[in-house]
Amino acid sequence: MGQPPSAYLNTRNPVERHDALPDTLPGRLSGPGLETFSIHDCKNQQQLSHHTHTLLSQLPSKMTAKNRNKNSEKSAASSPEDVPKKSPKSSSSSNNNGVSGPSPQGPPSGSYLGLFATIAFYIGLIGAVGFAAVYLQQVVEEVRQISVRHEHSARHDGELSVKMDSVVQQVESLSSIVDGLESSLGITRVELEGSIARMKRGEVETRKVEEALQRLQNDLLRDLSEGIKEVKEAREIDFSSLEKTVEERLAEVSQSIKASVSEFTEAQDETQGQLSDLKARLGDMEDPALVKQELSAIVEAVAEIKAANEAGGISADSFREQVGAVRSELQTRNQEVASLSQEVETVRSVVQEAVGNLRNSLSAAESDVQALKDKSSALESGVEQAVVAASHVEKQVNAAADQILRRSEDLEARVKTSEESGDSLSASVSDIASRVESLLAKCDTQDSVLAAQGQAVEKVKSGIEQEMEALKISLGELQSNMAAVGGAQTKLSSKDSSLGQQVEEMKSRLAALEDSSSSSVKPEQLQGLTSMVEGLESRAAKLEGHDQAIQALQMALKETTKTLAGLSKGNKGK
Question: Is residue 95 part of a domain?
């Protein structure tokens, strides 16, 4: 009777869940003698107040109904025991109601009824308090279960938030990586633009060099063709005039020698005949006057012979002068050939300088191409790494999204109040997906930029290959021109051989003349002829030296073409 309501708490097991309670009850419930409990993840405080108000409004009606039932039961149980007690009361009451007598027991029955009413009231109050305690115990147990469920859901939400934070960190790291890649791509783009500008400058310089080489080649070919023509014409004129003059002079000399020899033989025969006649006459005659006449005639004949010999000496002097003029002409021609050889040497030095500059430009272009290849390979490796990292992050994001979707579905099935958190998670997932899509779009743009850069590099390579092909064509033209020069050289060598044959013929003629006129020709004339022949031989030797210099120039040009071909092959191999 005197126990407080808290004594009835935690005495029975919790019954089934009441349908009137919601899934989530926010706030705290406390009371005298009851344990304080907390509820997480509430929807709304107004719902809590509304439910508590409904519960408190329903408690009195239920308590009164149960008290009535208990009172009826107790009255039914106590009625057979109180029959003998009530019988006198009833009799007294009947006596009171009747006419027969008075009722002296009226006040004690009223006191019993009051006592019984108070006892029944306390019993009903105690039952209502016990029922309320039991009901509150059930409510507390249900609230505890709900709090446990919400703690479990909060734990899951914490794990999901941790995982989402890790995903966000990974996305941020990926964004930082992508930003670094973009910065590196910007740097490489700037470097590629600089290299493209350098390549353009190199192309302009190579074009200038090609134009200079073309002009030099044209000038060289023009000068060589003009010099070859002049040399050919001069040699033809010189050889033709020299042959004609030598043949004429030799014919004149031979004729004069023959005439002088014939005259000398005739004069010798005449003198011998005259001497024989003189001897005969001297043997026949003894007159000194006749002898004097004969001697005077002999003296006159000897004077005529001396005059003829002097005339022959004058003709030999004129022939010597002509030979000296021919020598001076040969010296002038030798000087012209020497100047031509100097011009050829200067052209050779200019060609060597141009080839050296071309080699330097080619080496610079090769170094630029190698640097571009290294940069493109580094960019490709960086892009591959970025693609791998993006794919890995995308897989992780997809897995996390799948897990989040599954857990969100579980949470939606378990707890209906987590829809808002699920919406926020889906919004964050959509944000992450949009970020990932933007990152993938950036990666696609970077791939397109890298593809464009690769196309630019391929264009540069094709331009360099075209330049190398043009250089090969120009080298082929140079080789053809050198072949033409070699043909002209062969012609010159053939002409030199013909000149040597002519010199040999002249030597044979001179030997024949020496054999035929050893007794009549003067040694000075023979020395002049031999000196002229030696001059012709020295001229032929100089021409052979010039031919050797031209051959050396051809060999140097062949070596330069070989080196350029090797450089072009090396560029193709790279």
Answer: no
Asked whether 514 and 526 are in contact (CB, 8 A), the reply is yes
Residues 455 and 519 in one domain: yes
* Structure tokens belonging to residue 44: 């709304």
Q: Say whether both 158 and 181 belong to one domain.
A: no
Q: Is residue 91 part of a domain?
A: no
Regarding whether 359 and 462 lie in a shared domain, the answer is yes
Residue 103 lies in a domain: no
Query: In residues, how long is the chain?
Result: 574
Q: Are 357 and 371 part of one and the same domain?
A: yes
Amino acid at 228: I
Among residues 235, 124, 294, the alpha carbon closest in space to that of 502 is found at 235
- Where residue 546 falls among pLDDT bands split at 50, 70, 90? low
Three-class secondary structure assignment of 380-432: HHHHHHHHHHHHHHHHHHHHHHHHHHHHHHHHHHHCHHHHHHHHHHHHHHHHH
Determine contact, residues 19/46, Cβ cutoff 8 Å: no
Percent above pLDDT 90 for the chain: 4
Domain closes at, from 174, 195, 222: 174
Q: Are 234 and 336 in contact (CB under 8 A)?
A: yes
Ramachandran area for residue 27 (φ above 0: left; ψ -120 to 50: alpha; else beta)? left
> Could you give the number of structural domains in the chain?
2
CA–CA gap between residue 98 and residue 325 (Å, rounded)? 203
Report the DSSP pairing between strands 27-29 and 37-39.
Answer: antiparallel
Quote the pLDDT of residue 555.
Answer: 74
Tens digit of each residue's pLDDT (9 = 90 or more) over 197-224: 887 887 788 788 778 777 877 887 787 7
Contact 164, 383 (CB under 8 A): no
Domain boundary residue, one of 174, 195, 224: 174
Q: How many whole angstroms from its chain centre is CA 48?
A: 70
Only one residue has tokens 């004339």, namely: 525
> Which range of residues forms the domain containing residue 20?
5-78+110-174
Give the confidence band of 285 by pLDDT, cuts at 50, 70, 90.
low
Task: Give the whole-angstrom CA distance, residue 442 versus residue 258.
Answer: 110
Q: Are residue 158 and residue 208 in the same domain, yes or no?
A: no
